[in-house]
Amino acid sequence: MNDSISSRDRASKLGLLDKEYEIAQREDEKQRLERENELHTAQARVDKVTRIGLVAGLGIFVTASFLAYIAYQRTKSKNQLLAKQKEEIETANSVIVKQSEELQEAARTKSRFFANVSHELRTPVTLITGMLDLMEKETPQSVLPKMSIALNNSRRLQTLVDEVLDLSRLEAEKVELKKSPKEISTLLHRIVFSFDSLLETKKIKVEYDGALLNGIWLAIDEDKFEKIINNLLYNAIKFNHEGGSIKVEGKLDDLREHIIIQVSDSGIGIPEKDIPHIFERFYQSNFKKEKNSEGIGIGLSLVKEYTELHKGRVEVTSKEGEGSTFELQFPIIKKLQAEELMTDRTEDEELQVSFSDLKTTPNILVVEDSKEMQFYLKEIFEDKVNLIPTYNGKEALLWLSKNTPDLIISDVMMPEMDGYELMRNLKSTGSMKSIPVVLLTARGAEEDLLNGLSLGVDDYIVKPFHAKELKIRIHNLLINQQIRRDWQMKPVEKEDESEVSNSEFMETVEKYVREHLKDASLGIADLADHLAVSERQLYRMCGLLAGMTPAHLIKEIRLTIAYKMLTNREVNKIYDLAMRVGFDNSAYFSRQFLARFGRKPVDML
Predict the structure, then answer these.
(1) Residue 257 clears pLDDT 70, i.e. is over it
(2) Which of 411, 406, 407, 362 is nearest to 391 (CA)?
(3) Is 189 exposed, middle or buried (0-12, 13-18, 19+ CB in 10 A)?
């Protein structure tokens, strides 16, 4: 019975276990289903989010693409507009450039025209001024005022010619300043009061106040500085009223690094619209024309360009009807060496030129196509020389085939055969090589000078020239020629016999002097030792082949080298130049240079 109860209990427990197991399985299945539902729900959410993301991304892409397309279209339109504007600007620029080039070419053409006319004017202007200068000394007192007016105006015309040529050189950028130290107060005072006679004629009072500039030095090109002040003063007189006034004042700036020069007048003034243009080349105000004031519009242009070449500046203030004030500013020299001051103060010697020391009256062949210039030369030399006139190189060579002159003066620009071609013919003919030649021409450019010197001319003088300078140079050449002939006529002693030619001798001597150029002690004994001859033979050879003593020949070579250095702008101080060519005293060098070339070396700086 107990066994049956136990069986029933076990069966009952098993049944309970089965039920519990079944319940557990149902719970597990339920949980599994719930998890699957949750997974499906989550997957559905993910799918939904993915779909939303794709849709949103697609929408953004479409929107971005649309916006990009709009931006592209706008950019394309802008680019097209910019391209069109650029094309229009380039077209406008090309038109402007073309117009600018046309204006520049017109200005260059105008400058060339003025330059060509000025070259043509140089000879007649030289003749007019020169003849008036000569006539002034013989003019009766009653006619002297009229002669003075004619002479002043001829000089003014000469100044205008020079200004136009200066302008052409500025355009070609061939202007170089020949600077030297100058005490500005003294120079400015001289320039201002050189207008005394004109101011008196116009009844204009001038007031000069330069006390603050005493002892102040500038490094300037004196000629160009004078042109600057002359232009300003001439304008102040020209555009002033009778009985008006002009004031020239000099002072220092606050830092004492620059001088300031003011030129003020009580004249008609400058209209406000013209002030920005008055320094432009060829600019002419209608206001001036209404006042009957002539001019070609280059004076103030030169003032500005010359001032700026000196590292200075120029400004103007003006009020119509009340006058104008021009203000110049130049940098001051801080220190000057004593020898520079001494050189600047070298006295301008008045050399007396006389042809009476020549044994015979020299014959000078003049090759010049201007009858007036031939007449002027005759007036300069009076009866001291015989002038043989010819009108071109071809005619000169025909005369030279039968005659031998003591010297030749030739123009450069001539019909049929010019001066350069004549020189080439002379130097290629043995019998004519030794004839001294002076080229007298209006072509004053550096390349013309160098071309003439390279052809072997003995001197090159530019028109307009000073009569005394021409006479000095001609006289020196004739003296050398006379000495050479005197030596040639002496009987040849045995020890003096030599087969050395003139050219070989001169080349040897010049080479030796060049090698010892800075040696101021180089003398006759040194040269004789170098040539392996006695001093007596050296004297004989120098006289026969060069027409001068050995000491004179050495000095001539030194001075000629100095002249070429000045011409080539190789130096800017006279003291340095003197040392470089073997003169230990710059004042003595300046005197010797003046005696040889008729002008001071400082004038060529």
Answers:
(1) yes
(2) 411
(3) middle
CA 368 to chain centre: 31
Give the pLDDT score at 356. Answer: 73
288 to each of 179, 268, 310, 481, 500, how far by Cα in Å? Answer: 35, 9, 29, 57, 70
DSSP string covering 445-498, please? Answer: -HHHHHHHHHTT-SEEEESS--HHHHHHHHHHHHHHHHHHHHHHHSPPPGGG--
Same domain, 505 and 478: no
- Determine the 3-state secondary structure of 267 from DSSP: coil
**Closest by Cα among 104, 83, 125 to 465:** 125
The CA distances from residue 9 to 17, 18, 63, in Å, are: 12, 14, 79
Question: Which of 278, 306, 336 is a domain's end point?
Answer: 336
Q: Is residue 317 within 8 Å of residue 325, measured between CB atoms?
A: yes
Condensed to tens digits (0 to 9), the pLDDT of residues 282-328 reads 666 665 444 444 555 677 888 888 888 888 999 999 888 888 999 99
Across 511-515, average pLDDT: 87
Q: Of 432, 433, 452, which is closest to residue 442 (Cα–Cα)? A: 452
Give tens-digit pLDDT for 75-120: 777 778 878 877 878 777 777 777 777 766 766 676 666 666 666 6
CATH for 530:
1.10.10.60
Among 303, 336, 369, residue at a domain's last position: 336
Nearest partner of 407 among 505, 500, 477, judged by Cα: 477
In a domain, 56, yes or no: no
Q: Is the dihedral of CA 434, 440, 446, 447 positive or negative?
A: negative
How many residues make up the chain in this entry? 605
Phi-psi region of 336 (alpha: psi -120 to 50; beta: other; left: phi over 0): beta
Residues in contact with 292: Cβ distance below 8 Å, sequence separation at least 6, in sequence order: none
Residues 391 and 494 in one domain: no
Question: Is pLDDT larger for residue 25 or for residue 278?
Answer: 278
Residue 18 corresponds to which amino acid?
Answer: D
How far lies 268's CA from each of 24, 262, 264, 291, 460, in Å? 127, 17, 12, 9, 46
pLDDT band at 350 (very low <50, low <70, confident <90, very high): very low
CATH for 182: 3.30.565.10
Residue with tokens 């000057």: 336
Edge to edge, the sheet with strand 245-252 lists 205-209, 245-252, 258-265, 323-331, 313-319
395 vs 34, residue with greater confidence: 395
Any idea of the CA torsion for 137, 143, 147, 148, to the nearest 10 degrees? 90
494 and 479 inside one domain: no
> Do you find a cis peptide bond into 415, omega within 30 degrees of 0?
no
Same domain membership, residue 387 and residue 250 = no
Query: What range defines the domain where residue 358 resides?
Result: 354-484
Burial classification of residue 150, based on how many CB atoms lie within 10 Å of its CB (0-12 exposed, 13-18 middle, 19 or more buried): middle
| Cα 314 to chain centroid, rounded | 18
Q: Helix, strand, or coil here: 234?
A: helix
Region of residue 294 (left: phi > 0; alpha: psi -120 to 50; beta: else): beta
Q: Can you give the C-alpha Rg of the chain in angstroms?
A: 47
**How far is CA 224 from each of CA 176, 276, 325, 394, rounded to the nearest angstrom?**
10, 23, 20, 40
State how beta strands 205-209 and 217-220 pair.
unpaired
